[in-house]
């Protein structure tokens, strides 16, 4: 009768290596858990991308996902939850940037930056993480524009910084033109209107109508109505 158990030599080396690492981590965690004292571990900067690639054993996508899960759970330490305000945002951005380099097609690091780590009660750190989203947007504008749109909304409504919101909205309009919905293109128009830059807002709408990029009748009507509103508002200001 054949032995149903396969020889160890048939097990892939990667599986054995990962099992060994997991055992070691479990042992370390066990001995850390024996101490009654609670030490909050700081978020340190990541190792180099090159080292992370080597440790990935050729599968950087899987490694990026595992590291993202680890990073997202870092605020929970031995049953105690840290506020994002306690995290080192310089190190956090470095980790997120490395994860994007390991898996450039992943959208989750930027989702986490714009939706999770932006919810910090520290305007300096909030600006840091939004600027990180802005810088990373240019690496792949056609796929990363939703996260910069979220950054523009936060800059406008939470930071109350209209010039910053306009900077993000204009970057979207100028660089992400392939599959971007109309509302994302219009963000800059509404921000310009709030800033009192009515003529510039009118020029943008006029350009959108003349270029033929808007074909839906309801959207064309909306833009024409908005253009008339801006013209009326500009006339009242100039009286």
Number of strands: 2
How far from one another are the termini?
A: 99 Å
Percent helix among the residues? Answer: 55-70%
Name the helix and strand elements from N-terminus to C-terminus, one letter apiece: HHHEEHHHHHHHH
Parts with pLDDT < 50 across at least 5 consecutive residues: 1-8, 27-38
Number of domains: 1
| Mean pLDDT across every amino acid position | 84
Fraction in beta strands: under 5%
Decide which structural class fits the backbone. Answer: mainly alpha
Largest sheet: 2 strands, antiparallel
What is the general shape? Answer: elongated
Lateral arrangement of strands in the main beta sheet: 1-2
**Total of DSSP H or I helical runs spanning 4+ residues:** 11
Give Rg in angstroms. 25 Å
What report would you give on this structure?
The chain is an all-alpha fold and about 240 residues long. The protein has one domain (about 10-195). Helices cover about 65% and strands about 0% of the residues. It has 11 helices and 2 strands; from the N terminus they run H-H-H-E-E-H-H-H-H-H-H-H-H. It has helices at about 15-35, 50-55, 60-70, 90-100, 110-115, 125-135, 140-155, 160-175, 180-195, 200-210, 215-239; strands spanning about 75, 80. A two-stranded antiparallel ribbon has the order 1-2. A hairpin with a 2-residue loop joins strand 1 and strand 2 (about 80). Helix 6 runs antiparallel to helix 7 (about 140-155) and helix 10 runs antiparallel to helix 11. The termini are far apart.
């Amino acid at each position: 009768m054949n032995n149903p158990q396969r020889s160890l030599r048939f097990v892939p080396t990667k599986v054995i290596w990962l099992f060994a690492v997991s055992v070691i981590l479990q042992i370390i965690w066990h001995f850390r858990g024996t101490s009654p004292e609670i030490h909050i571990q700081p978020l340190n900067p990541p190792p180099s991308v090159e080292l992370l690639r080597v440790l990935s054993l050729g599968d950087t996508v899987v490694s990026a996902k595992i590291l993202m899960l680890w990073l997202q759970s870092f605020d929970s330490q031995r049953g105690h939850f840290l506020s994002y305000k306690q995290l080192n945002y310089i190190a956090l951005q470095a980790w997120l940037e490395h994860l994007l380099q390991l898996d450039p097609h992943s959208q989750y690091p930027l989702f986490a930056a714009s939706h999770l780590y932006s919810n910090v009660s520290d305007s300096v750190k909030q600006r840091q993480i939004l600027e990180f989203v802005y810088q990373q947007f240019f690496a792949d504008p056609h796929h990363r524009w939703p996260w910069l749109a979220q950054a523009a909304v936060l800059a406008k409504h939470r930071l109350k910084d209209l010039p910053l919101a306009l900077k993000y909205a204009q970057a979207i309009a100028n660089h992400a033109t392939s599959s971007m919905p109309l509302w994302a293109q219009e963000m800059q128009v509404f921000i310009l209107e709030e800033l009192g830059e009515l003529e510039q807002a009118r020029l943008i709408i006029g350009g959108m109508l003349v270029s033929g990029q808007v074909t839906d009748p309801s959207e064309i009507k909306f833009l024409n109505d908005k253009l008339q509103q801006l013209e009326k508002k500009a006339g009242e200001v100039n009286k």
